[in-house]
Amino acid sequence: MNARPGAKSTAQRVRAFRERMRARGLRPVQIWLPDTRTEQFARQAREQSLAVARSARARVDQDFIDAISEPGGE
Q1: 18: region left, alpha or beta (phi > 0 left; psi from -120 to 50 alpha)
Q2: Separation between Cα atoms, residue 35 and residue 51, nearest integer Å
Q3: How far is Cα 22 from Cα 8, in angstroms, rounded to an integer?
Protein backbone atom coordinates (compact mmCIF):
# COMPACT_ATOMS: atom_id res chain seq x y z
CA MET A 1 0.00 0.00 0.00
CA ASN A 2 2.65 2.51 -0.91
CA ALA A 3 1.52 5.88 -2.13
CA ARG A 4 4.13 5.85 -4.89
CA PRO A 5 4.87 2.96 -7.19
CA GLY A 6 8.16 1.36 -6.21
CA ALA A 7 8.28 3.18 -2.88
CA LYS A 8 9.77 1.14 -0.03
CA SER A 9 7.82 0.31 3.09
CA THR A 10 9.00 1.61 6.44
CA ALA A 11 10.25 -1.87 7.34
CA GLN A 12 12.30 -2.02 4.13
CA ARG A 13 13.82 1.42 4.75
CA VAL A 14 14.71 0.51 8.35
CA ARG A 15 16.25 -2.78 7.23
CA ALA A 16 18.33 -1.01 4.57
CA PHE A 17 19.47 1.63 7.07
CA ARG A 18 20.54 -1.03 9.56
CA GLU A 19 22.42 -2.91 6.86
CA ARG A 20 24.30 0.28 5.90
CA MET A 21 25.20 0.96 9.52
CA ARG A 22 26.39 -2.62 10.05
CA ALA A 23 28.50 -2.30 6.90
CA ARG A 24 30.19 0.66 8.59
CA GLY A 25 31.08 -1.56 11.54
CA LEU A 26 28.33 -0.34 13.85
CA ARG A 27 25.74 -2.32 15.74
CA PRO A 28 22.42 -1.36 17.30
CA VAL A 29 22.09 -1.13 21.06
CA GLN A 30 18.84 -0.76 22.95
CA ILE A 31 18.77 0.47 26.53
CA TRP A 32 15.91 1.12 28.90
CA LEU A 33 16.08 4.14 31.18
CA PRO A 34 13.82 5.47 33.90
CA ASP A 35 11.19 7.88 32.59
CA THR A 36 12.32 11.15 34.16
CA ARG A 37 8.95 12.75 33.35
CA THR A 38 6.97 10.71 35.89
CA GLU A 39 5.92 11.80 39.36
CA GLN A 40 7.32 8.53 40.73
CA PHE A 41 10.78 9.38 39.36
CA ALA A 42 10.66 12.89 40.83
CA ARG A 43 9.57 11.55 44.22
CA GLN A 44 12.31 8.91 44.28
CA ALA A 45 14.99 11.39 43.14
CA ARG A 46 13.98 13.79 45.91
CA GLU A 47 14.07 11.03 48.55
CA GLN A 48 17.53 9.94 47.42
CA SER A 49 18.80 13.52 47.29
CA LEU A 50 17.58 14.18 50.83
CA ALA A 51 19.18 10.95 52.06
CA VAL A 52 22.53 12.00 50.58
CA ALA A 53 22.21 15.53 52.01
CA ARG A 54 21.52 14.12 55.49
CA SER A 55 24.43 11.69 55.31
CA ALA A 56 27.36 12.04 57.70
CA ARG A 57 29.56 12.23 54.58
CA ALA A 58 27.50 14.93 52.83
CA ARG A 59 30.23 17.60 53.01
CA VAL A 60 33.00 15.22 51.89
CA ASP A 61 30.83 13.93 49.02
CA GLN A 62 29.95 17.46 47.89
CA ASP A 63 33.60 18.51 48.05
CA PHE A 64 34.43 15.59 45.75
CA ILE A 65 31.69 16.54 43.27
CA ASP A 66 32.90 20.15 43.31
CA ALA A 67 36.50 19.04 42.72
CA ILE A 68 35.68 16.98 39.62
CA SER A 69 33.11 19.36 38.15
CA GLU A 70 33.93 21.79 35.38
CA PRO A 71 34.18 25.41 36.50
CA GLY A 72 31.18 27.47 35.48
CA GLY A 73 29.07 24.37 34.90
CA GLU A 74 26.30 25.64 37.15
Answers
A1: alpha
A2: 21
A3: 20
Global pTM exceeds 0.85: no
- State the number of CA atoms in the 13 A half-sphere of 36 facing the CB: 1
Query: Given this model, what pLDDT does residue 6 score?
Result: 79
* 8 Å CB contact between 52 and 58: yes
Dihedral angle computed from the Cα positions of residues 51, 53, 55 and 60, in that order, rounded to the nearest 10 degrees: 140
- Provide the terminal-to-terminal Cα distance of the chain, rounded to the nearest Å: 52
40-69 mean pLDDT: 94
Residue 8 has pLDDT above 80, yes or no: yes
